[in-house]
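The material for today's practical consists of a large collection of protein records. A record pairs a protein's sequence with a compact description of its fold. Instead of coordinates, the fold is spelled out as a row of discrete tokens. We will come back to this pairing of sequence and fold again and again. Here is such a record, shown just as it appears in the course material.
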Amino acid sequence: MALPGLLVQPHLETLDVQIRLKDGWPFPATLPALTEIFHSSLDAFPGAQASLRAGLFPGGGHFGFFYHDGVRFAVDSRGCEVWADWPENYTLEDACTYLVGPVMGFALRKRGTVCLHASAVAISDRAVAILGLPGAGKSTAAAALARAGFAVLSDDIVTLTDKGAKFLVCPGYPRVNLWPDSARRLFGSEEALPRITPTWNKRYLPLGKNGYQFASSPLPLDFLEKTFDTRQIVPLEWD
């Protein structure tokens, strides 16, 4: 089954990660409650409802990700198998907003790949990583650079492959996800971009079409150290 936002790779004989989706494969009913919670969104926002609880199941063989809306995932300790489950009123697109972001980032980490919560753009044959706290404008900056003619390498998750003297960033998914206010600032209207899912108002910029480039080859990493306020980004006419 094709997952939204991912490129189809035909004729692959080796599976790196097997993802078992709702209905096709049942979520492991035998898994008991989490015995150790190593992350809760309450850690960052005291007094708020936890939007995510992540932890370890008994025995240490599986990790669990439980979102407040009922979407849940189990990841085996090797990062080779993922189970996904979601409520009846949800869609595959809804679940994939979590799956292709933090869940796959965690699976990659278990497989030995370091992941940054960042976006990356190709500039002068190098990958420039844009890092910041949630809401800082990483994706907005990447989309603005895409408008300026630069190729986007990855959004939300930036993987690092250690090559000794340098790190390589591998291509991610050919889209940049944007909140409606960023879509309005950059493209004049949130309706100018498609929704990432019919039930969410978040939008995405498709890459590899309409002049917006997608960098499809790994590039050596640089870090963008300059600090700027993405709230000041407004629609511009690029030369």
